[in-house]
Design brief:
The chain is of the alpha/beta class. The protein is built from 15 helices and ten strands. The protein is elongated. Bound molecules: adenosine-5'-diphosphate and magnesium ion.
Length: 444
């Protein structure tokens, strides 16, 4: 790909163009007019082609985006795809996107290849007509041969910078198509609007409060959350229980502002999180989900996950997460590469790595979304021990299926269909028989 010096062309060209143009008009207004008509005519043709090119460039980037995310999803969901024997389906999907990418690419190349000789041809055409017309004038005695030569020179001065200008323009257009695409990617939930003078939040002093929070997913018919009201004081643990689809994860997703509330507000020490810096709010959080997100990297890098940390801090975090035991048995210890998505580790080991990662960050507010529900009971016991360390004196929102995870919570909220239907401590709730149906301790 060539990178013309856009700014240079943009600033220098207009001066040369207008100067030479002035000279041309001064020497022969008639000839200048003829040239102009011709240039506008060819400009329209070339312009039509390049705007088409821009649109297709945009199309191409879109398709490339789909292609990339198909690859990502395939890699990300490999186990699911295999479990459902959906390889063929996924391959078909991939082939289809690939083919449309190739076709669009071909169309663009064809058109670009066409547009360059076409503009050459039009340019030669303009010069041919100019020479012919000039010769007519000279033979008719209306124009001196020397004057015509000077005129041609001025014309050349107009044409050359004009070419670099259109080239720059075309490249800017191409860039714009790419910018559109990047904007669309950054536009996914997460890129939340921020006030021009956001309030900084460095720590949690009092706690996190949900005030009559209602929320509907975009385009969803039913509200996912209705009138959620609770306070999570600093140093305490609030637990959410309820059947799948009750809205537990939605509550968790509202705190880092993956979405904004539809009604009500979420506050930290009284500050509406929509008035705070998004970065600040997210910086307070440590999130551990059911799905251990790990990378084809060393144990150490999976724990630090971009954070600058000493070896001692990493080991200490691993020790507290009950991960140090198994890490020390690995062939290269902390330098051991855990394979794609941590494939060389067991489920419980993977989860303990993500807990070590959260511990290393020492977050002000810890969110655990069913961190133990994918584990067998032996791994769960180990992870549970790690969690008990993690939760001691920590501000935490814990989402769980199993009772054991939340036995120690200071308050338990029972959710059903997006609303809190029951609340209290573990003992209080266990005494209310009717609730056992809703949040079924039998799952524990
Ligand atoms: N991204 C989404 N778009 C639309 N609806 C969603 C989305 N995520 C969850 N929901 C819906 O919101 C409700 C609550 O989901 P969720 O918070 O994931 O429940 P839980 O975590 O308790 O299983 C469900 O009805 C679910 O279908
Ligand atoms: Mg969930």
């Amino acid at each position: 790909m060539e990178y013309p010096q856009c700014p240079e062309a943009v600033f220098r060209s207009p001066v040369i163009i207008s100067g030479s143009l002035f000279l041309m008009i001064y020497m022969s207004p008639g000839l200048t007019l003829v040239i102009f008509v011709l240039m506008i005519f060819s400009g329209v043709i070339i312009g039509g082609i390049s705007s088409r090119l821009r649109r297709q460039s945009g199309e191409l980037q879109d398709i490339l985006g789909v292609l990339v995310s198909t690859v990502e999803e395939t890699l990300g969901g490999l186990r699911v795809i295999k479990a459902f024997r959906a390889e063929r389906f996924q391959q078909g999907l991939f082939r289809k996107v690939n083919e449309s990418y190739r076709d669009t690419q071909t169309r663009i190349i064809r058109r670009r290849d066409l547009s360059s000789p076409l503009s050459e041809f039009l340019g030669i055409g303009v010069i041919a007509i100019l020479l012919w017309y000039g010769a007519q004038r000279i033979f008719a005695g209306e124009l001196g041969a020397e004057a015509f030569m000077a005129f041609l020179l001025a014309f050349y001065n107009v044409i050359e910078p004009m070419k670099s200008l259109t080239n720059a323009y075309y490249n800017i257009q191409k860039g714009l198509a790419a910018v559109d695409r990047v904007d669309k990617i950054l536009d996914v939930p997460g890129g939340m609007p921020e006030r021009s003078d956001p309030i900084p939040i460095r720590e949690i002093r009092e706690g996190l409060r949900f005030e009559q929070v209602s929320f509907s997913y975009p385009k969803a018919e039913q509200a996912a959350l209705k009138g959620i009201d609770f306070f999570l004081p600093k140093g305490k643990t609030v637990a959410l229980v309820g059947l799948s689809g009750a809205g537990k994860s939605t509550i968790a997703d509202l705190i880092p502002r993956f979405y904004d509330v539809t009604e009500g507000k979420i506050t930290i020490d009284g500050t509406d999180i929509r008035d705070a810096r998004v970065e600040d709010v997210r910086g307070l959080l440590g999130i551990v989900t059911q799905e251990a997100i790990l990378f084809h990297e060393s144990v150490r890098n999976n724990i630090t996950f971009g954070l600058q940390a000493t070896d001692e801090a990493v080991i200490e975090a691993a020790r507290l997460a009950h991960a140090a035991e198994f890490i020390e048995l690995l062939p290269e210890g902390y330098d051991f590469n855990i394979g794609d998505r941590g494939g060389k580790l067991s489920g419980g080991q993977r989860q303990r790595l993500t807990i070590a990662r959260a511990l290393l960050r020492n977050p002000q507010l810890l969110i655990l979304d069913e961190a133990t529900s994918a584990l067998d009971s032996e791994s769960e016991r180990l992870v549970q021990e790690a969690l008990d360390v993690l939760l001691a004196d920590r501000t935490a929102l814990v989402i769980a299926h199993r009772l054991s995870t939340i036995r120690r919570a200071d308050e338990i909220l029972v959710l059903r269909d997006g609303a809190i239907v029951e609340r209290g401590t573990h003992d209080e709730l266990i005494n209310k028989k009717e609730n056992t149906v809703n949040w079924s301790p039998s799952r524990a």
